[in-house]
Give the backbone structure.
Amino acid sequence: MAGTEENLNEMLVLRREKLEKLTEMERNPFLIEKFDFTHYSSEIKEKFEEMEGKEVAVAGRLMSKRGHGKVSFLDLQDSEGRIQIFAKKDLLGEEEYEIFKLYDIGDIVGVNGEVFKTQTGEISIRATKIILLSKSIQILPEKFHGLKDPDLRYRQRYVDLIMNPEVKETFILRSKIIKAVRQFLDDRGFIEVDTPILSPIAGGANARPFITHHNALDIDMYLRIANELYLKRLIVGGFDKVYEMGRMFRNEGMDYKHNPEFTNIELYQAYVDYEEMMRLTENLVAYVAEKTLGSAVITYQGKEIDLTPPWRRLDMEDAIKEYAGVDFSSINTDEEALKVAKGKGIEIKPGMTRGHVISEMFEEFCEEHLVQPTFVIGHPVEVSPLAKRNPEDPRKTNRFEAFINTWEIANAFSELNDPIDQKQRFVDQLKQKELGDDEAHMMDTDFVNALEVGLPPTGGLGIGIDRMIMLLTDQSSIRDVILFPTMKPIDNEDNENDEE
């Protein structure tokens, strides 16, 4: 191991020495500001018949270098692929060829030359000029093993993207998915808006917020956990259809489907209910799949999932009856519910009611069965502080959560627009907070005031964009669809000790 580190250190020193030599020769690449390239590698390959014999200029990173005396072969990687470069001393000139020998794998170069095909049939560029645009003084991972360590891949995403082309394809597809979501909503008359990321109240969801301090105002502020309450204020103000896609922040645990900073979209439409939000959700997800993948039937980690509408509708109590064998239609008191919960091994927390038990039992026993797209409805009022009550059973709300592959990917409801009921639910949430629930909702008096001004009947929807992208790109971890996921800092002192 020590010998390997010694060799690496020697190679790093050698690269710096080459840079010094280039600088002495007035060839410092870092003084170059631009290079006018004419084509990408993919275009040259796809249109070879019309490109053959033409002069082109390409730019990219050297990924391999094979020398045979007066002739060298290089692989140049640009943003769209790779192409072989044929470098010959006679064509470049003796002086330029000697300078070219100072270039390393990882360096960024610009190449001018003629498109041709080698005797082995590989489309290549016969270089007449190779100019160093940036010197890599680090060493790329060895090509056969590449960059495989997940932790290092996420920390050094720039190297991950260089060494693993499929990673770049995932993020290109991510961009297309987000574009398709916007297109679906824009085509239906929704207006994209911006709301505050920093707020004096963390509202719109039950989650633990990140707290910071605003020095000028001398107040604590919160990174948003949701943008719901601001968007509903816009419906009060007269917008009929609004949405916002952006970052949300929740100071909670991390696992394969949770990152503290994540992308979410929330949308609100006046004069519709949660049934319309169901139709919008299933049609949006199917549209995005067809637009980006060509089909509403996808494969995720070997499982076939059919996103074609309509999706299954399942009441939460019916799910518990089906998967846990408990019938809540005959359990009407908190005491009965808590007794059942204990019997099923559910942790009893202070202030728990029948509604809380239903929610906990659904999470514990039912979610794991919901692989195909399913709308779960009938959420208890206690866990839905912003949703309208079901008129047939006021213990429930007109809310749904959409599940695919056992994950919740969307949450929606007929929005509560009764200011008196809303204020009381905020009060109830404050009681939960006093009992130790860090995720309980805060009181938002201005939002209550907005409801008093008048919110029309409204349907609202939130979709976890990262989870949807995980499904559509067949990625097993949320870190594989976020370019720079949250990571624990590396301790510098430990690193120094390791190096010693």
